[in-house]
């Protein structure tokens, strides 16, 4: 009779639960029983583990074998338990000293030939192990850099089960090198087909600058450029409306590059989500720039907010966590999918309830909506090129619900670029570097003001706190309050104007918003001219 135990991690969303893997050998007919609420992929590990152990040169015990995963009440899914199951079995058969295994967390899938393959969610799994007090983890060699991001953890990266057996048994470690001239299948990555990673859901930021994308490339569009800068400085959601070719997508693509780089804590949050989704860039385990996610308008509600069959996976709102979610051709999205965004916009996270349990994903993102004014895209107040009937235009614009638009702080019309603007020698505006410096300085001012508070940006501060703690200059809110009385603004809209005014004040260096800051915020909210300069640089 033999018994051994080791540990692995079960992931529930981006949170992990340490699972004790126990193996028990008893005399009797040879059998392998796996208990502890495993799913189908985990149940199939019995065959993978047996083949891997035999092909690694170890003897498979010909006894009654029971492997238990504790706590049994926690659902367990995926192939990441293979390495722990194999080690526990080898410990129970005394191929490995069981005492060596008890304080080690093992994460990895086994191939039939004994190779250790990577799995999704290495970073959140190691974070869960560290929070539970464990100090040693064993992971696939190609995922060791990702696991090493967690401080205070000793990481052992192995390429094969044979290597792990040698290390734990204090034997010479075999050199397992990939075949020369052939790609290493273990380094192929874990990108999942159908996630849109190659066509829209991708990490941007510094990558955009590497591709030569600069804010100075946008000709004209002073109001839209100002709105983009204000959105980046305060984390405000943005709605761009205008005809095709006016520059809406160009502006959205350049927004991540002017956002500040992620802090260490934010980087770990973003990396954990992308690790679970299988979207970590090859050779770069830590995501340290703001992500940029642009799903196609045919995306379903599950693709936007998360979910799916079986284990719930993060959606676009979570892949854009701490970054930008760009919805181009917004009226073409399904109404249910758009309305599902309202909850994460307010809460900063998504809760997905399934019969197997409840999963929570982070979703603090900056949303940018872009839309044509009508189905043909040529409707304008200044010309009559549009041939769409008025009823068709109203129905098209009504696809964006009032409750969703009320949560958008900045609404800007992006007009066509004129011939004179294109032909001007000095048509190029401020560069990304210049605008990014102002945004970073504005964020620092807000950080000092919000020190000791649970909020990081002006867009997160509740309206009641703004009205009670941080007051605008005397008389600065008069025009905004008159707009509230006339029905131009809702009470929520008034609070959002005040938040934007604080962001503008941070950009221009004011101690608190004055009438100019509030009127500019009001103009960016309503689109009604207020006679103030639209360029932040002109106000500094």
Explain how this protein is built.
45% of the residues are buried. A hairpin with a 2-residue loop joins strand 14 (349-354) and strand 15. The strands form five sheets. Strands 10-12-13-16-11-17 form a six-stranded mixed sheet. A four-stranded mixed sheet has the order 1-2-4-3. A three-stranded parallel sheet has the order 5-8-9, sandwiched between helices. The model is unreliable at 187-210 (pLDDT under 50). With 540 residues, the protein is of the alpha/beta class. The protein is built from 24 helices and 17 strands. One of its GO terms (molecular function) is ATP binding. Residues 234-418 form the AAA+ ATPase domain. This is AAA+ ATPase domain-containing protein. InterPro entries: AAA+_ATPase (IPR003593), CHLI-like (IPR045006), Mg_chelat-rel (IPR004482), Mg_chelat-rel_C (IPR025158), Mg_chelatse_chII-like_cat_dom (IPR000523), P-loop_NTPase (IPR027417), Ribosomal_Su5_D2-typ_SF (IPR020568), Ribsml_uS5_D2-typ_fold_subgr (IPR014721).
